[in-house]
Design brief:
276 residues; alpha+beta; four-stranded antiparallel sheet; 8 strands; 28% strand; globular
Length: 276
């Protein structure tokens, strides 16, 4: 998640051809998420921004002089790779290996000043980690109830918060996550889920409604574009005629609206291209 007005995210769409079972797919999703988290943690520990990493990595990994525009281009790509679930594991492994071989990181190791990396499991034991990694005070309060709700009904990860309405009486937020409701490890049980979190007159946060199987018309969501003019906009993938079950390839933009009973419905689905 980030500090933008809404929380754009790359949802669980790393549906690799080589992955067979739904259990393997979910493991791969968590592996991608955890490697992205580990890279961010190492960057924080060595005191590098994404810009600094991009410059150092581009120069060190090239056998020729690097132009400024090339560093800028790589930085944009690197930023997306740290959020997209379509990022290849081998790409993230390469970045981790580079970081762990820098002098800055080795000094931290020798001085025993590095913080232990704790991978997410998708289970309730992740609760404290999820809260600790959210630095926005309001969003942390939202996650306190939303993550507890999500982890109580199944495995859950990749929480993303979208601010909805706000008035003098209450604020409301849509929280979307990926998970396996009921821990059934089946292809029909994992996918996006959501809940709506609102504040009471006294400032308490609570879950007002939830949808364990968030029907977006997409097999998987790759990005929450945002919420404006009472519409939620998502980007994700559907199946083509010859797609394997674990690899929907048709990219679509979906617009959804909420009715008076907190139910979301698709009002438009636009094809915008193929995966590659």
């Amino acid at each position: 998640m980030n500090s933008l007005g809404i929380h754009p995210f790359e949802f669980i769409c790393t549906l690799l051809h080589s992955v067979g079972t739904s259990g393997d797919i979910m493991d791969n999703f968590l592996n991608v998420t955890n490697k992205q988290r580990e890279i961010k943690q190492i960057l924080k520990q060595v005191g590098w921004s994404q810009r600094q990493f991009s410059g150092k990595y581009s120069i060190d990994e090239s056998d020729r002089d690097i132009e400024e525009y090339e560093i800028n281009k790589f930085q944009e790509s690197f930023k997306k790779q740290l959020n997209r679930k379509t990022t290849k594991l081998e790409t993230l492994d390469k970045y981790i290996s580079y970081l762990k071989n820098t002098c800055e990181y080795k000094k931290l190791i020798n001085s025993e000043e590095t913080e232990e990396f704790i991978p997410l499991t998708g289970l309730f034991e992740d609760y404290k980690i999820i809260l600790n990694e959210e630095h926005d005070t309001t969003y942390r309060k939202v996650l306190e109830v939303a993550a507890a709700y999500a982890l109580a009904i199944g495995s859950a990860w990749d929480f993303n918060i979208v601010p909805l309405e706000k008035d003098e009486f209450q604020s409301s937020f849509l929280v979307i996550w990926e998970g396996d409701v009921g821990h059934n490890h089946g292809s029909g049980t994992w996918g996006p889920a959501m809940c709506k979190v609102v504040t009471s007159h006294f400032g308490y946060y609570f879950v007002s409604s939830g949808d364990h199987y968030f029907e977006t018309s997409l097999r998987c969501i790759s990005e929450v574009v945002g919420y404006s003019n009472n519409e939620l906009i998502l980007i994700g993938y559907k199946y083509g005629d010859n797609d394997a079950n674990n690899y929907p390839s048709l990219k679509h933009k979906v617009r959804m609206v909420e009715d008076n009973e907190d139910k979301w419905a698709v009002i438009d689905c636009e094809y915008i291209g193929d995966r590659f």
